[in-house]
Queue: 3 jobs
Job 1
Amino acid sequence: MKFFSQILHFTRLRVPNLGNMPLEDLKALNCEIAKLGRHQFNEIDLNEFLHHWIKGNNRKLRRLQLNGFKYAPEWDFLLLLQNGISY
C-alpha cells in the first residue's frame, strides 16, 4: 500500500492502529524505533520477521514494539521457532 511505503523511513514511528500492513513492508522498516498497534501479524509472521532482522536486515531498527494482537500469541511456539535462529 502506498501509505505504508510513505512512513517506513521515519526515524521514530508510532502507529496506534496499524491495520493490515503487509509483512514485506514490516521487513522494509527503515526507522530506529517503531511502535505499532492493532496489527494483523501472527506468530508465523513474527518468526519470519525475526529471522529477517537477525540476518542483518533492518539495520537501523533498534526497538520494535507490537501492541494489540488480535489473538494472544503462543509465546511458547515462538520460543520453539526461535531456537532454530543462529546468531
Job 2
Amino acid sequence: MFIFVVCPILSALSLGLYYKDINSFSLRNGEKAVATIYFRRNTVQRKFADDDLWERLANKSPIYNGDKIRTADNSEAFADFKDSDSKIQLKENSLIQVLYNSNGKSID
C-alpha cells in the first residue's frame, strides 16, 4: 500500500520540478533589460554574454546587453526594445547578438 501512495506522489513532484526547470529563465540582478521578448513560438534560447549555457526563453523574457538569441527549426521570436519603438523579428534558425551602448543599439 505504501508504494502505491508514495511513488505517484514522488513522480508528480519530480515532473513538476522538471517542468519548472526547463521553463524557467534567469534574471540579471542590477542590469537593466534593453529589450523584451513579447512573442515566441517553439524553441527560442538566450545565452548571456558572460556564460556558455543556452536557456529557453518565454514570452516577456528580458534581453540584456550582449545577449545572444537564437531560434530553432519552425520557431520565431519578436522583441521590443525598451528605449524606442524599435522591434525585431527573428525567423527560424536565426542567431543574433544584441549590443547596446551610448551611441545606440546594434544587432550582429
Job 3
Amino acid sequence: MHHRLLPILLLCSSLLVATTNADNEPQYKGCPSDANYTRGSAFQANLDALLSSLPAAAASTSGFAENATGAAPGQQAYGLAQCRADVNASDCRVCLDGLVQDMASDINCSVQKNAMFIYDKCKLRHSNTSFFGDLDTSVVFSAWNWRNATGPEQFTSQLGSLMSSLRTKAAYESPRRFAVGSVTVTPLVNIYGMAQCTRNVAADDCNRCLVGAVNYIPTCCDGKQGGRVISWSCSIRFEVEPFYNAQAAEEAMSPAPAPGGGSVNGGAGSNHTVRTALLVSIPVAVALLVLLLVAVYLCRRNRKPHKHVQIATARHEDIDEGMRSSESLLYDLSMLRAATDNFSEENKLGEGGFGPVYKGTLQNGQDIAVKRLSATSQQGQVEMKNEVFLLAKLQHRNLVRLLGCCIEEHERLLVYEFLTNNSLDKILFDPARQQELGWGLRHKIIEGIGRGLLYLHEDSRLTIIHRDLKASNILLDGDMNPKISDFGLAKLFNIESSVGNTSHIAGTYGYMSPEYALHGIFSAKSDVSATASSSSRSSPAGATLTRMRLDPLKICSPMFGGTGAAGTFRRCLRGAPPRGGGRRRC
C-alpha cells in the first residue's frame, strides 16, 4: 500500500513547489543546434579548457565572465557564465561547477557545439560562434505556481506595475542588469519580483528582452501566484513569498562608487594652491554666467511661442510617456526607415484614418505593416495611444497583432503583423477580385469576425466596444482568415454595464447603429450592428431579402455556389442553427 502512495506523494510535493525548483535542479537544458563535435577533437579540448575556467572567473568577478579559447578557425569555443546578482561568490562557484558537470554528463547535449543550461541561481552557455553582446528574446522556458491568485484583477494590475518598474531599473539603473522589488496587493499578500538580463547586453536591448518576457506572462502564468519566464538574454520571476536575498540584492542594484580623488595634504603650500585656484576660477565662472544670461535673453527674444503649440507639445509628451510605459516592443526609427525604404510610395499599402500604412521587411526577413502618424499633427494622437494600450493586452487569432511602436524625433509609428491579402474592402468592392469570394469563403470571414467580437465583448480580460467596425478595418491573412484592426476609437467598458453614452460621435456613417449615430448611445450591440452592415455587403442579397419575401435560390448571387450554399444562406438569414443542432453559426 505504501509503495503505491509514494509516487502520489512525490507528485504532490513537486506541485507544491511548482516554480521553486531546487538550486541544483536544472530549470532549462537546451542544445538549439544539431552541430555535433567529435570527441577528442581540437574543439573539445578548447571547450573543456573554457568550461573549466569559467566558474572560477565568474565567482571572482561579481558573478559574470565570458571568454573564448582556441585560435584555429572553426575550432574556437565561446562561453558565458553568470550567477544571479544576489548570490555570493561561494554559492556562485558551486552552482556553476554543477552546471559544468551536468553539461558533460547530459546524453543529448554533451557533444553539441551549442548549449545553454540554467539553474535557479546561475546559467552557463557555450557555442562555436561568438554570441557576446547579441540580443535574443526567444522564450526558452516558463513555469508557474499551481495556486491561483486571490483577486486576480488587482493582483494582475499590481504585478504589471511591479514588473514595469523592475524592467526599467534592471535595464537602465543597475550596473549588473538586475533588479528586485515587492508590491503590496492586500495587507496579507505581497508580490516579490525579479528581472535580470545577461550582463553584456546594452541597456536598450535589456529593456526589449524584458518587455518580451513580461508580455509572455499572460500566456504562461495569468492569474497564478507565481511564475517565471526565461529567454536567451533575460529572465523574470514573481512569487508571493520572498525568493531572493534582499540585502545582497540591494547591494547588487546600487551603482558602483566613484573612485576617490586621493588624499589632501595640509600646510602653507596647500593654502597657496587653493588661493590661486580661487583667483583663477571665480572670474571664469562669472564670465560663463554672463554668457549664459545673454544666451537666454537672445533665445527668449527670438522665440514667439503660441499657446496652442504649447498645448499640443504637452499633449504629445503625455502620449509618448504613456506609450513608452506600455508593454509593447519599442522599435528604432532607423530600423523602420530601412525596412520601408524610408517610407517610399512603392511600399505604401493605403491611407488609414490617422495616417498612411506602409509595408516593410526587417533584416531577419519578417514582413511588417507600419502605420505612420506625424507628431506635428494633433489628430489621432489619443487614438494611437488607445490602440497601443488595448492591443498590448489582447491576444486572439481574429485580432490583428501589434508588434510594437516607435516614438523618435517627430515620428509616431505603430508596427503590426503584415497580412498578405490586405483589407476586406479591397476585395469586396473590386469587380475583378470579388469573384474570389464564394459563399463558403464569405461565410468563413463572417464567422471569424463574430469570433473576434465575442472575444472583445465577453471573453477577454477587458470588455471592449470597437465602435468603428467596417470592411476596411477587417484584414485578411494568407489563408483569408479575418482579423479585426484599428482600435483607435475603441472604448473600455465596465463589465457590469451594458450601455455607454458619449457626446463625441466617432466612426463611419453607414456602419453606425441608429442609437449611436443619433444619441451617442453605444454597447456591444453597436458592434453587432456594424457587423451586420459589413455582412450585408459580404452577402449582397441579404439587404433585399430582409425587405422582400423571396427565395434565396432566386436572388442569391451565382458566385455563392449551388443549392448547398443557398441552404446555409437561408438558415443564416432566418437565424436558425445548422442542421444537426450545435452552436449557431450565423
